[in-house]
Amino acid sequence: MKKIAYIIIWLMIFACTPKKEKYGKLVVLEHYFVYEIDDSYYPHDYFVEVDLQEWLDTSLFVEKRNNHLKIINKSLVGRVEFTISKNLDILNVEYDGWNYINGYETQYTVEKVILSMNVNPFESDQITGHYTLQIRETFLAEKQLKEEGVNDIVTFSTFNGKFKVYSEQEKEKGRDWIISQNELLQGIKDSLDVYDFPHERARFSFGNDSLSNLLNQFEVKRSETTEEKRSDVFFEMIIDENGKVIPESIIVKSMKSSDELIRRLRSCKSLMFNWQSAIYENKPVKSKINLPIRIKD
Fold first, then answer.
1. Domain-embedded: residue 241
2. Are residues 165 and 211 in the same domain?
3. Is there a domain that residue 4 lies in?
4. Into how many domains does the chain fold?
5. Which structural domain, as residue segments, surrounds residue 142?
6. Which of 134, 155, 186 is the last residue of a domain?
7. What is the SS3 assignment for the chain?
8. pLDDT tens-digit profile of 189-241?
9. pTM recorded for the entire structure
């Protein structure tokens, strides 16, 4: 009887012991996720193609229940389904790709997964997710091939994917507006669409030597400045997408009175119009530039 009692106790302990989760936990990274950039993660993208609009509307499915969440992410290369518990354990992951080899039946098994989101999906509907799957692909030879001595094929692959639940405002405003908002939140540009960190900075059309010669005509007396030792004062201006200076943007620093100098700068057509605009993501953009004016002792 004692032996039977011990067996029952061990069975109860085993049954009550939590099983180790196969896939681990969803990682919530509370920072701004940039979904729309081109990277190594294959997108579910609402704005990919106009003629795919109806399909894309249904390519991301999120079902939230009391104690678990199901996310189905379909793309042009496959289908992924995640089941997540309320305490963010990844309970199950299924992958179905579009790979096909004539004469074989294809089976996919997700061996490992890394899944991260910008928020807890049980607390917010505006989720953005990135994931990496390690997939075991088993190609089972059909009967005719097996009779010819052909074996099954097993390969391993990695798939990076991402998805996003777009708000109604984002759908209405469109992709360009979303990218613009991303750039504002990342500090790439300011609210006036001026880029602080373009990929290529604005350049004077006739070269730096010509620009230096042009600026020599604006040199100022030290008595007109607040500088005691430096050999230059600086002015800032914004060059627009068309390579023209925005006159109202000119600001001169370290001058006791800058009105007259600003007037002279604005009236110089060579300075105001001969620029190649800055470039960001292969498009011309507004940018700031700082230039020196020599101080004459």
1. yes
2. no
3. no
4. 2
5. 14-186
6. 186
7. CHHHHHHHHHHHHHHHCCCCCCCCECEECCCCCCCCCCCCCEECCCCCCHHHHHHHHCCEEEEECCCEEEEEEECCCEEEEEEEECCCEEEEEEEEECCCCCCEEEEEEEEEEEEEECCCCCCCCCCEEEEEEEEEEEEEECHHHHHCCCCCEEEEEEEEEEEECCCHHHHHHCHHHHHHHHHHHHCCECCCCEECCCCECCEECCCHHHHHHHHHCCCEEHHHECCCCCCEEEEEEEECCCCCEEEEEEEECCECCCHHHHHHHHHCHHHHHCEECEEECCEEEEEEEEEEEEEEC
8. 998 899 988 999 999 999 999 999 999 999 999 999 999 889 999 999 999 99
9. 0.66
